[in-house]
Request: fold
Amino acid sequence: MALLCVILLGFSSAGNTGKLYKWVDENGEVRYGDHLPPSEVKKRHQTLNAQGMVISTTEASKTPEEYAAIRKAEKERKEIEAAEKRIKDLQRKKDMALLMTFDSIDELDQAKDNQMEVVDLVIQLIYKSMAIAQERLEVLEGHAETLYVSKGLQVPGGLAQNIEILTRANVNRQERLQQRLIEKNKILARYQKDLTRYRILTGELPGIPLHETN
Reply:
């Protein structure tokens, strides 16, 4: 501070009305002067008026690596904003479709029941076809055991092939059955999600109003 007062005194007595600069040298010492050394131009420094008040601060020039990091961060920020906007737009479209499709929770329930009824019907048909195929398979395997295997004979190609076809068909039916059971769970999960969202949109539950999803 004493150094600054001396500099300002000399600065004023000389009738100099220009600028005074303040910077920190390579040794960490604070320096003042009526001109900025070339080595400090790209480093952080401040400009003072005749009263020693800071009138501007110039930050240090950034390195290429720092500029690259800034550009990368800015790119990531824009990508995140774009992704958030897409999510909001998609949610808004889903909300509008939900409200335009159903006039009440009863209609939403009915739609779910209709979907479940169709899947349940397919499941029943799969169970029925599996049972019929299993009965036929047991008959053929019984014949193979009684007429051939128990006597140490090789099962004829036609009979063995039929047994293999029925076995493979039941494996396929079991896979389709599992797919339908998964579909039922998805229908229920989607229904619960739509029901909750519908109640929020219609004001029955607290949540984000429709106009805030724009």
About this structure: Strands lie at 20-24, 30-33, 45-48, 54-58. Residues 69 and 99 are 45 Å apart (CA to CA). The chain has a mean pLDDT of 87.
